[in-house]
Amino acid sequence: MKAVILVAGTSSRLRPLTDDKPKCLLQVAGKPILARAIEQLAAVGVADIVLVTGYLEKQIRKAVGDWFPGLRTSFVTNPEYATTNNARSLLLAKREVAGAQLLLLDGDLVFDAAVITRLCSSSHPDCLALRRTENMTGEEMKIEADPDGRIRTVSKQVPVARAAGESIGVELFSAAGSERLFAALEDRVGRRGLV
């Protein structure tokens, strides 16, 4: 299994905290968000990690190298990080993870290793971590599911009334599922101009 952590964005909504530091390097309870995430992945045996960087990427590369010198990490740069989104960043990682089971994480998450364990032990080869809540503002990445619990739509545009909950930014894809994911991303980027 390979993990992809998306850490390319500028996190402009957190300025001035992110004026000179990437969001993933900000500390929560005395520890940088990214260090905590990598430790949680290592705790459940995920040791092959791809980081998609962009904004202030030298800081991220140095920090990861200093914190985890023996860890198998690779870096992919999104040179258009300021004008593109996570879909483009993930697509850039395709070559690094093609044909592998894929664990995808947003780089600004503080989570417990039990989330990863639960996903990896699911009977479903493709699944995501969902937070059920009735208190959504509309800004969340909402999940619409069919009556059997299968995901139909993942989008901020899902009406709150139809949302089963909010994606917390951790998804697991089988090798076949990741192939379908990358094919869909290529289609959207290539034909529809999604950035």
Structure description:
By secondary structure, the protein is an alpha/beta fold. The chain is built from six helices and ten strands; from the N terminus they run βββαβαβααβαββββα. It has helices at residues 33-43, 57-67, 86-92, 94-97, 113-120, 175-192; strands at 2-7, 27-28, 31-32, 48-53, 72-77, 102-106, 127-131, 142-145, 151-155, 165-173. Strands 1, 4, 5, 6, 7, 8, 9 and 10 form an eight-stranded mixed sheet that branches. A two-stranded antiparallel ribbon has the order 2-3. Helix 3 packs across helix 6. It is globular and about 45 Å long. It starts with a strand and ends with a helix. 30% of the residues are buried. The model has no long low-confidence stretch (mean pLDDT 88).
